[in-house]
Design goal:
The chain has 16 helices and 30 strands. By secondary structure, the chain is an alpha/beta fold. The strands form 7 sheets. An 8-stranded mixed β-sheet has the order 2-1-3-4-13-12-11-8. Helix 7 runs parallel beside helix 8. The longest helix is centred in the middle third of the chain and has 13 residues, at 286-298. It is globular, with a radius of gyration of 23 Å. The two termini are 33 Å apart. The protein binds ligand 1PR. Ligand 1PR binds next to strand 14, strand 22, helix 10 and strand 30.
């Protein structure tokens, strides 16, 4: 029996699913007594450092947790569950950490995008039983803006490179804690969990010891989901956002089955977009929550869900906040939520008022769950203009001239699945959303969607240069070299595609092989 400390702040379902997939049963901590009587305790910290420590105090879990760890019984901390063990964190200096490992938690000080999101490797510094069966060159999933700074080097188990070398896991007796997410790291992640659970294992070192690790470029499979005219939830795909063919919604498969296929084929992440979420209230749309629950049972890479995340009043006049909608998604197995239409309206209000409201969905969700859990999905359309001064938006010079020979364009934000254009450009939207707390940008492009013409490199360059959070390039992938182009010509950290994968035109493995052959770091 494994005891799991859930303080109610995010996706612990994935950890439960991963442990259960290894044949173990999980008991969730209800009271301090459950911590004190645990035999093996897993603490998957999610959210933000300050809210985690506050809730641990409110629930009176701090002293039992210290007593458990001081007793040297098996403990596995994940992500914030590692950071919690330290004295303090720059993320919330007003709160003390548990003070069980000497040192503090610092924000990444690098020119690279922060959060550090994606698959990176481990430099193993000492043998451990959790490495049994690992070769040493595997990659694991990280998503964090802060890392631990250890006072006593003897506890360092692994380091990872991101701008500089930081400590990515520690071990002190039976206390093991890692910054990466084993439950989201596919087969090698499950192996680490299994090794932790089998406490009798011998300490070993992997065969291949790396001295420097590299963050991989991510390949994301995207599933646009909606109900078809018969009321079944299907994966569909648009051409420039038009998902109907001969009047019917295109049906390219079932969401849970397709997600599982992409996991097995090596997708680094899976994104579900509930594309009619702007119409329906997602908490009434239980099938979508069920899709997440079922997918997260056997898909052990990160899952993002978007569509309909905003404040809402149901037909009985009951109010729901975007935070409640997001919470339901996290509880059902999502690791990140993605906001589309609402982000545009929030940015417009911010620009009109000259200051944040403090209570927008972006601010509230990132405050509670951390900005790494919040993606903003942008649906821009190219608008040609004759000169940079023609409009009051951020205009770029383009090599692809417009119908009347125009040399300039701006990227107009849209809402409601591209149906409504707004007086806001995509670059400004990305900048405002970063300021308000978004941790990542999913950059679609209506002009390229479904065309297989390749990614809009000009758009992606304009946005990646304007923000310091990771950007996912999306829309237009048609050939393997389009992925190579986007990673060599832009600073995008991930590339997302849909149609070519759904129609089995290009296997995911071919994309990764081509990238690896062309010296782009990928996870294989
Ligand atoms: O506005 O917060 O409710 O979120 C709705 C979400 O649904 C947004 O993220 C929006 O991008 C998405 N969406 C709405 N309508 C459509 C549509 O297609 N009619 N899909 C839609 C957006 C675009 C991509 C697509 C890539 C790759 N899908 O995600 O997967 O363009 O396609 P390709 O590789 O085939 O070119 P809200």
């Amino acid at each position: 029996m494994i005891t799991l400390l859930d303080y109610g702040a995010g996706n612990v379902r994935s950890v439960i699913n991963a442990i259960e997939s290894l044949g173990e049963t999980v008991k969730i901590v209800d009271s301090a007594a459950d911590i004190l009587s645990a035999e093996k305790l897993v603490f998957p910290g999610v959210g933000a450092f300050g809210s985690m420590i506050r809730i641990l105090h409110e629930k009176k879990f701090v002293e039992p947790l210290k007593a458990y760890i001081n007793s040297n019984r098996p403990f596995l901390g994940i992500c914030l569950g590692l950071q919690a063990l330290f004295d303090r964190s720059e993320e919330a200096p007003q709160f003390s950490g548990l003070g069980l490992i000497a040192g503090s938690v610092k924000r990444f000080a690098t020119d690279l995008s922060v959060p550090h999101i994606g698959w990176n490797g481990l430099n193993v510094k000492q043998p451990s039983r959790i490495f049994a069966g690992l070769k040493g060159d595997e990659k694991f999933y990280f998503v964090h803006s802060y890392h631990v700074d250890v006072a006593d080097p003897s506890v360092i188990l692994t380091t990872t490179d991101y701008g500089y070398e930081f400590v990515s896991s520690i071990q002190k007796g039976n206390i093991i804690a890692c910054q990466f997410h084993p439950e989201k790291s596919g087969r090698p992640g499950l192996l680490i969990l299994k090794n932790f659970l089998e406490t009798a294992g011998r300490a070993v070192s992997p065969v291949r010891l790396s001295t420097r690790t590299t963050l991989a470029k991510r390949i994301i499979a995207c599933l646009d989901v909606r109900a078809n005219d018969q009321g079944d939830l299907v994966v569909t795909k648009g051409d420039q956002y038009d998902v109907r063919q001969n009047g019917d919604v295109r049906n390219l498969g079932l969401p849970v089955e397709l997600a599982r296929r992409y996991y097995q084929e090596g997708a680094d992440e899976i994104t579900f977009l509930n594309i009619t979420g702007f119409r329906d209230f997602p908490l009434e749309d239980m099938p979508m929550l069920e899709v997440l629950r079922r997918t997260s049972r056997n898909v052990f890479v990160p899952l993002t869900i978007g569509g309909g995340i905003r404040d809402y009043q149901d037909k009985d006049g009951r109010q729901y906040s975007a935070l409640q909608v997001a919470a339901e998604y996290f509880r059902s197995g999502a690791d990140k939520v993605s906001i589309g239409s609402d982000a545009v309206l929030i940015a417009e209000a911010y620009l009109a008022d000259g200051q944040p409201s403090g209570c927008s969905s972006i601010e509230e969700i990132s405050r509670v769950y951390g900005n790494q859990a919040l993606v903003v999905s942008i649906d821009p359309r190219r608008v040609y203009v004759g000169s940079p001064q023609a409009v009051g938006h951020q205009v770029i010079k383009t090599a692809i001239a417009g119908p009347a020979g125009e040399q300039y364009c701006w990227y107009q934000c849209t809402i409601k699945g591209g149906r409504e254009g707004r007086e806001l450009d995509a670059i400004t939207l990305a900048q405002v959303c970063e300021k308000l707390g978004a941790g990542e940008i999913l950059l679609n492009c209506i002009d390229r969607d479904g065309t297989k013409m390749g990614f809009d490199i000009e758009l992606i360059n304009a946005v990646t240069k304007a923000v310091s959070i990771p950007v996912i390039a999306s829309s237009g992938a048609g050939r393997v070299d389009h992925f190579q182009e986007v990673f060599s010509a832009t600073e995008a950290e991930a590339a997302l595609a849909a149609g070519i994968f759904h129609r089995r035109e290009i296997p995911l493995e071919d994309v990764k092989r081509y990238l690896a052959d062309n010296r782009v770091e990928v996870r294989r």
